[in-house]
Specification:
- It is a single chain.
- The chain has 760 residues and is an alpha/beta fold.
- It is 12% helix and 20% strand.
- It has a 23-stranded mixed sheet.
- A hairpin with a 6-residue loop joins β3 and β4 (63-67).
- It comes from Abeliophyllum distichum.
- Residues 18-57 form the Leucine-rich repeat-containing N-terminal plant-type domain.
- Keywords: Cell membrane, Glycoprotein, Leucine-rich repeat, Membrane, Receptor, Repeat, Signal, Transmembrane, Transmembrane helix.
Length: 760
């Protein structure tokens, strides 16, 4: 009751009046173009505590966080910081001003004045353009615990003044130009727990002993530099708690000395050394055996011994193992024959051994690794059937066994998996798909390209309600395209090319949504967050006291693990690999190189978000639908090698995104459109159509060229009535049969029937 009284008396409608006025004044003084649309000069029920980027204390109602990250359009004028604008917020803890084109500050209004905000703990200035004077200004903010200066200045010859920042726990200096001198300038930051120096100009031999004063380090990121090795002249204590060793580059020339030098950091859990100049390979896993508590081993693109996996079982606490592109050879170890084998590590959550030279079969003991979320073994020489024991991996989210030599059929138990992404493409798998995926409701990606599957596409495929990407190209499927494919409303990428499919193109394909989904590129699970991601969301989840180091461990920086899904799709005459946000937005339909016949459904013109459409190398007839002018996002349209007739619709010139267009080898007539991008397509786009003219073909449209008409001799005319009668009877029966296949819309069928009656 007391709090309610105070709240009602001292701050109105959810925030203090003086802070609401201060926020509006702050918005006024941010150069034009800011995106703070919710900051309005009238009182609302929610109050300013619910404005964009504003967070208030649950107990006092005061503003404690201002997230102004990227609130300005970058093309606008420079912004000069004015500290006085922020002083009214006396309880402010977190302030983010990143990516706002800040270049300096008004005279006597520098960051040093923020020292009056005694509660300020986190400051994000990343992505701005300050000069070197900012260092002395920041050094007076003694209350700071988190400081993000990623990518803001060139300090190739300067050290970092840290005398007043002794409470710092997280410091991000990544993406700048610091050199080796930076280490000596950080020695006073004895409370530091996370130090990020990736993407600087640190070269050659690093005097790691200059950081020994940082005993509390939990995370050290030196990636993206030009480090060759670590040097130290001091004796070091034994370190037992190193939990993550990440090397996405080639291993240091003196690995033993390097590892010993790291023992000075008794709490270190995350170490990032990827993309440096470290050269000599590790001989065996036993060079890491003293790191018995290792939970994450990330060594992508390293140089490892060919039999590295044979003894990795000594690391029984491993959760994350990524060894992609490490040159590992030999067979996958089996628990039954090698006691220290890979399959004896029951704690594994992520296993990525793709892009190596592994051979042999996947041992059945893989079924014992029931905690696995990610299994990636692509691009090796693995063979034999896919073991049914994989079906025991109840937590599996991503399965990638592509580009191997697996053979045999896919076990029916696969339909019980909960995986979101199954990539089995480029193998020698065979048989029918009758039972393998019929109840796989969580599946987002199904990639079975370039195998030897036979039979028809099962009607049960309609049960895959979450599917966005279905890639079945280059197999031996036959039969018609099932209408059940259209039941998967979330589809956005369909590849059925290079099969033996026949029949009409289902008009119901126009009902798919081409939905943009993040789940297409990322598995639907989260193992951790990152200090390289949103700074404020990161610090909100990190406890600062030593007792909370478990929280940091749980957030184990998996930022450099590439969880993104890759999907291949042929468009613009080339095979492209899509990933990340590009994959999220990609949409395409490829039905090329089949035996499809009939007309192209005009309703496909409803797919306005479609980026690629390939119907080439079929037996399609009729005209190019004029409705295709509605495909405003289309970048590639391939209708070549069919029996299409009529003119090229002039409305296609409105497709401003169209980069590749080909209608070669059809029976088209008329003048080639010349407007806009149609003036850029070469003659290969139109060749094989003897009755079209205009550039880029060397055919003059002023010279008339008769379009051939079917010729009938006397005998054919005499028998013409009987031929027509037979034709109409046959055609009526054909329409009746095709009605079940949805070959034509009811309107289309009706018009055809009327035409037949009048002609008869």
């Amino acid at each position: 009751m007391v709090l309610s009284f105070l709240n009602g008396k001292w701050y109105c409608l959810g925030c203090f009046e003086e802070e609401r006025i201060a926020l509006l004044y702050l918005k006024e003084n941010i150069p034009i173009g800011n995106l703070l649309h919710s900051w309005v000069d009238y009182k609302t029920k929610a109050g300013c505590c619910h404005w964009q980027g504003v967070q208030c204390s649950n107990t006092t109602g005061r503003v404690i966080q201002l997230d102004l990250y990227n609130t300005r359009f970058m093309v606008l004028e420079d912004w000069y910081f004015n500290a006085s604008l922020f002083l009214p917020f006396q309880e402010l803890r977190n302030l983010s001003l990143g990516l706002n084109h800040l270049v300096g500050w008004i005279e006597n209004e520098g960051f040093d004045k923020l020292s009056k905000l005694k509660n300020l703990e986190a400051l994000d200035l990343s992505g701005n353009s300050f000069d070197r004077n900012i260092l002395s200004s920041l050094s007076q903010l003694s209350s700071l615990k988190h400081l993000n200066l990623h990518g803001i200045f060139d300090f190739s010859s300067r050290v970092f003044e840290t005398s007043g920042l002794r409470n710092l726990k997280i410091l991000n200096l990544g993406g700048n130009y610091f050199n080796n001198n930076i280490f000596s300038s950080l020695q006073e930051l004895s409370s530091l727990e996370s130090l990020v120096l990736f993407g600087n100009e640190i070269k050659g031999s690093v005097q790691i002993n200059e950081l020994y004063a940082l005993n509390d380090l939990v995370e050290l990121d030196l990636s993206g530099n030009e480090i060759e090795n670590f040097n130290t002249s001091k004796d070091i204590k034994t370190m037992h708690s190193l939990q993550v060793l990440y090397k996405d580059g080639i291993i240091v020339s003196n690995i033993s000395n390097m590892l010993q030098s790291l023992r000075a950091f008794p709490y270190l859990k995350n170490l990032y050394l990827q993309y440096n100049n470290m050269k000599r390979p590790i001989a065996t896993i036993y060079e890491l055996r003293h790191l018995s508590q290792l939970e994450g081993l990330f060594m992508d693109n390293s140089s490892l011994d060919a039999n590295f996996l044979q003894s990795i079982g000594v690391m029984t606490s491993l959760k994350f193992l990524t060894l992609s592109s490490c040159g590992i050879g030999g067979t996958l170890p089996n628990q039954g024959t090698i006691s220290n084998s890979l399959s004896s590590i029951f704690t594994l959550v992520v296993l990525d051994i793709s892009n190596n030279r592994l051979s042999g079969k996947i041992p059945p003991s893989v079924g014992n690794m029931t905690r696995l979320y990610v299994v990636a073994m692509s691009n090796n020489h693995l063979e034999g059937p896919i073991p049914v024991e994989i079906c025991k991996l109840d937590s599996l989210v991503r399965l990638d066994l592509s580009k191997n030599n697996f053979s045999g059929s896919v076990a029916s138990c696969f339909n019980k998996l909960k995986s979101s992404h199954a990539c089995l493409n480029n193998n020698r798998l065979e048989g029918q798909l009758t039972h393998a995926f019929y109840n796989y409701s969580s599946l987002v990606t199904l990639d079975l390209r370039e195998n030897q599957f036979i039979g028809s596409i099962p009607q049960s495929i309609g049960n895959l309600s979450s599917l966005s990407i279905i890639l079945l190209g280059v197999n031996h499927f036959k039969g018609t395209i099932p209408d059940q494919l259209c039941q998967m409303k979330r589809l956005s990428m369909i590849d059925l090319s290079y099969n033996g499919l026949y029949g009409h193109i289902p008009y119901c394909l126009s009902n798919i949504t081409l939905e943009v989904r993040e789940e297409k590129s990322m598995p639907d699970f989260e193992l951790g967050t990152s200090s390289k991601l949103n700074f404020l969301s990161y610090i909100d989840n990190v406890k600062l006291e030593r007792a909370s180091r478990v929280s940091l461990q749980e957030m184990s920086s998996l930022r450099s693990i590439d969880f993104e899904i890759t999907a291949a799709f042929t468009t613009k005459r080339n095979l492209y690999y899509y990933k990340g946000s590009i994959l999220d937005h990609m949409s395409g339909i490829d039905l090329s190189s089949n035996k499809l016949y009939g007309e192209i459904p005009s309703c496909l013109g409803k797919l306005s978000e479609l980026h690629a459409l390939n119907l080439s190398h079929n037996n399609l007839i009729g005209t190019i639908p004029a409705t295709f002018s509605n495909l405003s996002q289309l970048e590639s349209l391939d209708l070549s090698y069919n029996n299409l007739s009529g003119k090229i619709p002039t409305g296609l010139v409105e497709l401003k995104s169209l980069a590749v267009f080909t209608v070669a080898h059809n029976n088209l007539t008329g003048i080639i459109p010349q407007k806009d991008q149609f003036g850029t397509f070469d003659k290969d786009s139109y060749e094989g159509n003897p009755y079209i003219c205009g550039r880029p073909l060397p055919v003059d449209c002023t010279v008339s060229k008769p379009v051939p008409q079917p010729a009938f001799d006397d005998e054919s005319e005499e028998s013409g009535f009987m031929d027509k009668e037979f034709f109409y009877i046959s055609f009526t029966y054909f329409l009746f049969i095709c009605s079940d296949l949805h070959c034509y819309s009811p309107v289309h069928k009706s018009s055809l029937e009327k035409s037949m009656v009048s002609s008869h």
